[in-house]
Amino acid sequence: LGVASALGDADVALARLAALLPVDVIPGDGDPTTSALPQQPVHPLLLPTAHRYAPKTFVSATNPHECLVGGVKMLGHAGQPVLDLLKHADYTTASSAEQKTTAVGLERRSCVEGDAECVCVDRVGDARDDAFLAALEDTLYWGHLAPTAPDSLAVYPFQEADPFVLDAPDDDDPPARLVFAGGARDFATSVAKRTSLGPDDPGCRIVALPSFAQTGVAALVDLDTLEVERLCFKTASATVPAAAAPPKTTTAGAATKQTARADDVAATDEKAGGPDEATDKGSAAAAPSAAEEP
Question: What is the pTM of this model?
């Protein structure tokens, strides 16, 4: 009964969002879909009201999910590959004499920092020590979204090719300019660049997002500059550290939690002219499904 109620609340909330702007929903660990990666989209029967806006402004996507918004290629997942990597790799903080820190104070201990051709800059976040961000940077550097699969991370047994390999970019398939992942303990972000491309390289914005239900933290991304704005909402269970200062830049998919009655959705549909008349406002929102972020 609790799961059904949570799905109903999520369905109404997502429908209200889809009436105003495009929404992509990515399932996560524990959601009512397949457990092995890539997780399949949440079934339309579980979100019937929101699916009235599909495919114009509502997309029930896979996890991981790749999309193109405003000409910007985005790639993201719910965080399972990074969390599994942290079970095996040592991302503990170095001693105070060995610490490498940026101007904003985030620890840097990923493999990226050992390569003169790659650099991660503008590292900011809610905590000084963020192993999640470092591991996420490494998956991008290695060119593989799920490096521990299938040994300790359940994935579908593909035979022809590995869908988690990040192919070398070319003119027909440009690289992702925004890579995000949920499941982080704290919010953090950085920009990965290749030094060989010079100062004109726009780089790739990397974002680690914590649970919205627990922290109330979300993010807005400028698709032109990839600058980000950290948002923090007051929620019943939000426990944002008091010492956490809002970073100058922030990133990634935006998670939102809203609850509404069915008659609120009807009122929204009446204003928007119904699902068939909902139009693309030129911006995008990605929200985790009910079981991950109710």
Answer: 0.74
Residue 90 predicted with pLDDT over 90: no
CA–chain centroid gap for 38, Å, is 15
Enumerate helices (H) and strands (E) in the chain, giving the number of each.
5, 11
CA atoms of 21 and 281, how far apart (whole Å): 5
Distance CA(39)–CA(61), nearest Å, equals 9
CA 135, 111, 247, 180 dihedral sign is negative
Q: What are the DSSP calls for 251-287, one per residue? A: -S---------HHHHHHHHHHHT-GGG----S--EEE
- Looking at the DSSP assignment, which residues form a beta bridge with residue 70? none
Q: How far apart are CA 133 and CA 292, in angstroms?
A: 20
What would the two tokens of residue 7 be? 């799905």
How do residues 38-57 score in pLDDT, each as one tens digit?
Answer: 999 999 999 999 999 999 99
Q: Is 197 exposed, middle or buried (0-12, 13-18, 19+ CB in 10 A)?
A: exposed
The answer to whether the beta carbons of residues 178 and 99 sit under 8 Å apart is no
* H or E stretch at 132: helix 131-142
